[in-house]
Amino acid sequence: MSESEPATPFRERAGQALRDSFLQEALTIATTKFIGLRREAFDEFPEGEALRDRAREIKEATLQRLDHYLDLLIDNVERRGGHVHYATTPEEARRIVLDIARRTGARTAVKSKSMATEEIHLNDALEAAGVTPIETDLGEYIIQLAHERPSHIIAPAIHKTKGQVAELFARELKRETVADPEVLTRIAREELREKFLQADLGISGANFGVADTGTIVLVTNEGNGRMVTSLPRVHVAVMGVEKVIPSMTDLAVFLAILAKSATGQKLSVYTSLVDGPRRGGELEGPEEFHLVLLDNGRIRQIAGPLREALSCLRCGACLNVCPVYRQIGGHAYGYTYPGPIGILLTAMLNGTESVKDLAHASSLCGACLEACPVRIDIPRMLIELRRDVSERRIAPWSERVVFGALGRLLQHPALYRVAARLARLVQRPFVRGDVIRRVPLVFGDWTRTRDLPPIAARTFQERWAELERARRR
Amino acid sequence: MVTCLGDVFYPEVGEKIVRLLRGLGVTVEFPAGQTCCGLPLFNSGYHADAAAVARRTIALFHDAEQVVVPSGSCAWMVKHEYPGLMTDPADRTAAERLAGRTYELSQFLVRRLGRRRFRSAVGGRLTYHDSCHLLRGLHESESPRALLRDLAGSEFIELPGSDECCGFGGSFAVRLPEVSTAILDKKLASVEATGADAVVACDAGCLMQMRGGLSRRGSRVRALHLAEVLAPEETPR
């Protein structure tokens, strides 16, 4: 099953976001901060540019032999006593996790931040099966309390102001709060500490899976990831198949650019290397370790038009710099992955049909490509998706008529000239001084907020002969 | 190449470019039958039509020594996308030839002609908006700034966030007008905060968007094409 289509059209969802003053405030503050921190981090790191190229090369080389590296990863995880499962679909992934929960008698599961488990809507499935999922990343904890979904890949509660979080904590936790991040964090810590100790199951995602050692790597800032992977009896990591990398040497390349791109940190506060279950003589770690490898449309794209998107590190840099994301936030996109890369991932997981509107939610300004640590050409792939939409004729008929006419017009200069003359006549009643303040139809949406220049009394082509005469004189 | 928006909306910009280039001793020709570079079709995914438009344009400019384009996005289309749109090897070779000879106006003046000292045609204080395709597509931020910094009779002020999109994005501006306008409002607020008399850009799309917003809000700030601020005769050095 793919994700269901949102109930309201995209343009309406975007409009709602634009009218939400809290959202606007929160987004401006957070994305501006992220942009500045990222820029500073790379300014101080001259090796960064070359490492970005190297990281992309590693991803490309890994994709070329993905089956080999996955086999290696599986062998090495199993050699260290872990279990590996392969899920082609979200249903399979959920069933695998639920089976583990059922077999081990789990009642509560603590989770560290994971987009892969969001993608498969794992929390709903756990709850339906009588297992209480508890998000332990602060942002995820906040949105779980609010019954919402993440609106950013690395900052899931980016859409909330501190005042809103204080109100939420007061209401849901019945605690006295103030709109102070430190106080709010302390409250969340106190609430979560008990949950960590009680939980039977720890569920995490994975930033990387290192094939030649069988190590799962988690990059976090709050330390909750370590508790999730070491305190409960059983640890399950859900990892997209494209997250495998060949070796620890490669890991060093990615770690050097990941946190800088995401939050502007040199390194995240915690980089956890998980080597499977507790072995004889070890004091810590789970009794069981399971790795769930998730395909969900990824494998198909190795030979597909969205292949480049398989290199994504989920750093969120493209969201922060995207002028559209910065205005509408993540929820308006309507699917698990928001922002420019999110449109590509949504198409990957749910098909082109699901992004026939979202593919146009970009001015193609290219800021995403510039910010992407592995230089994914997001604008190019958005254009490819638009092309797929147009060639499969799933665009609205009105759009196809307009672009069909435009295509003919631009191939026939005589038609083009006639159209310019005709438009000059038609526009007459609408011209006020030197601007058009209101027109119906296609440009009505333009003139609601902006003036439109009228077609010139004489186009450049019509003036050219005169310019030539002036020269000869 | 005058481009579609330049032809029908801003013919005076084209005229100014002709006078400017002639003043610099450049022989300016204008192949008849131009329409548009095809970028709107390309960006919306209508690639067969975009390729047909591109083939026409390549043929029209077959004999031109150098092609000057007043918009970064159209220059990007020709330089960056035309070759890839051609399936026939001969067409592709012709597309690559054209790509190599095509310049956005500021690049042509500074990088090709080596001219950067002009007199200001408008005076006052000017700021500069980086159009996305010129900046991130053609990696050009220096040429227009060099021209504006050295402009005699105008003062140049950097625009904070000059590299951020104005919200035009072609059909994006009418597909998602509310989002497009919200992005524009932010841009215009930064422009107005600089205290500049005009914001200069090298792309007809950005100008249409910024002018539309400025005149609707009744701003005293103008949005001008680079060619409108460079006076035709060169300052003697």
Q: For the largest beta sheet of chain B, what order do the strands appear in spatially?
A: 5-4-6-7
Radius of gyration of chain A from CA coordinates: 26 Å
The CATH topology of the largest domain in chain B, please? Rossmann fold
How much of the sequence lies in strands of chain A comes to 5-15%
Mean pLDDT of chain A: 96
Share in β-strands of chain B: 5-15%
* SSE order of chain B: HHHHEHHEHEEHHEHHEHEHE
Low-confidence stretches of chain B: none
What are the key terms here?
heterodimer, A: alpha/beta, Rossmann fold, four-stranded mixed beta sheet, 51% helix, 11% strand, elongated, B: alpha/beta, 2 domains, four-stranded parallel beta sheet, 13 helices
Your description of this structure?
The complex is a heterodimer of chains A (473) and B (237). In chain A, a hairpin with a 4-residue loop joins strand 5 (208-210) and strand 6 (215-220). With 473 residues, chain A is of the alpha/beta class. Chain A has a 6-stranded parallel β-sheet with strand order 1-10-7-4-2-3, sandwiched between helices. Chain A has a 4-stranded mixed β-sheet with strand order 8-5-6-9, with helices on both faces. Chain A has helices at residues 10-19, 21-43, 48-64, 66-79, 90-103, 115-119, 122-128, 138-145, 162-173, 181-198, 224-230, 248-262, 317-321, 323-328, 339-350, 367-371, 378-391, 397-411, 413-427, 444-447, 460-472, and strands spanning 83-87, 108-111, 132-135, 201-204, 208-210, 215-220, 234-240, 244-245, 270-274, 288-294, 431-432, 435-436. Chain A is elongated. Chain A folds into 2 domains: 10-300, Rossmann fold (3-Layer(aba) Sandwich); 413-472, no CATH class. The model of chain A has no long low-confidence stretch (mean pLDDT 96). In chain B, helix 12 links the parallel strand 6 and strand 7 (222-225). The model of chain B has no long low-confidence stretch (mean pLDDT 96). With 237 residues, chain B is an alpha/beta fold. Chain B contains 13 helices and 8 strands. In chain B, helix 4 packs across helix 6 (89-101). The chains are: A alpha/beta (473), B alpha/beta (237). Chains A and B meet through helix 1, helix 14, helix 16, helix 17 and helix 18 of A and helix 1, helix 2, helix 3, helix 4 and helix 8 of B.
